[in-house]
Predict the 3D structure of the following.
Amino acid sequence: MTDYWSMVFVFVLATFIGLGVIRRVSRLLYTPLMSLTNAISAIAVVGSLAVAGADHPTSIRILGAVALFASMTNIVSGFLITYRMLRMFKKQ
Amino acid sequence: MTQAIAQVAAIAATALFIFALYWMNDPKTARRGVYAGVLGMAVAVLATWVQPEIVHHGWILAAIAAGFVVGVPLSRVPLTAVPQRTALSHAFGGLAAGLVGAAEFSLWLRAGPAQFTTFRTSALVVEVILGFLTFTGSLMAAGKLQEVRWIPQRPVTYPGQNFVNLGVLGAALVLGVLLVLHPTAPSARTVFPVIMGLATLFGVLLIIPIGGADMPTVISILNAYAGLSAVAMGFVLDNKLLVTAGALDGSSGLILSIIMCRAMNRSFANVLFGAFGTVQKVKVIGEQKEWKQESIEGAAQLLEQARLVVIIPGYGMAVAQAQHKVRELYDQLTKRGVTVQFAIHPVAGRMPGHMNVLLAEANIPYTALVEMDEINPEMSQCDVALVIGANDVVNPAARYAQGSPIYGMPIIDADKAKTVLAIKRSKNPGFAGIDNELYVKDNTWMLFGDAKQVIGDLVKQFAGGGLH
């Protein structure tokens, strides 16, 4: 049986780290911040991968594959567009 | 062995994601953040892929390839379309969470009642509700931002709207509680899809009454939901990496939502259930004044003789795609020794940071972009405030006009500048449907026309030697 309290514990700590780090993000960069966190939360990719790739019935693997496609789209477009926008911020 | 790989990878990926966000605190280090994020993601994906239970590699490769085919073009959209791209990616995030939740549910049904512990079933209900409402809500938001024809741009309201919306959400939650209490009842197979359907419907209903000016807040809230649905997925799958990465995204969305709400002096509930833009007309205070129009030549002269010019951009600049012309004007003025600064209101545009990205695209150095709180004390030193397609964020009525939808909203004090030049497309009032008394002040001069056209004409005045 899984230790659910440790999961909740991890969640609370990660939220506090997130709040501390995000609060310091430059206000100039809120748009790229959003596309970056978007790509990071596409970590749902690991869940989708497990559903799509394991030996489950086909109908379930189809759900997993669509989810994997959606997450992968976010990873690719999220990181690429963040990089593209950040390259535009120049000092002079 | 592979178990250990997965654990180490999860720790490494979490650390890399935290560094990625940490480096976003300065434009100088921000690009490093993207590398860290990509590395963390690659580690996480590979460590999952090598697990022994993954056997259908063809499916995975196909789905990943499809993700690249769609993702690469989505990363190359013009920067004015970044808000709708962002909304679309929240939709994809919600969809992934919802689908994985649905897949897990049917797997558990096959595996037997032992799977349905109270904790896991609750997490599953939260995952599918958040996932599917984020999916349709974000699709609607993206549609509104892209101005898709069959989605109305203006807020759509009807009597009893909040009652209907909360009823749909409440029904989904009640069914969710029932499912948690009786997960193995025969009715569970029907209840679960109904919850999915209600969440899908709620997402649509939630966005229908939202107007353009509320989009920065709504996009931030949907961002938080997308992150939280990933957290719920982590609880369901017993995966700590999903929980940490989702929590980082969720807290980012939360902070942005709070900043956006504060910048409009509104609460979450008011944004989601208040239907901005449908508010009653406010009575005009004092006598009705007339606009004063200025010629291009006159405006150019005013700008040239100024020492400090503050440019206040708004959504109108984005619509007119005027940022490159603004850059030319910036060059012409700085060449003549005029100090030019840009005053950025937090909710200018359609998403957080929208104006900064557009101006950076036009090669305006980010050191010239100043936040509202920093520029306001300097506004009395400002010789010319040039308002480009901004309206509500410079409306002095926000300071005193109780009952006005923008009352209490912090504004950029354009009216305190010695002279105000305002470029406006038409003589209609702004988004909130309120007259802007800034435009009829004694020291305000209007330039009517498309922002790109007007600024282009100004630049021509400077470049063509019309002025000496």
Remarks:
- Chain B is about 60% helix and 5% strand.
- The first strand of chain B starts at residue 308 and ends at 313.
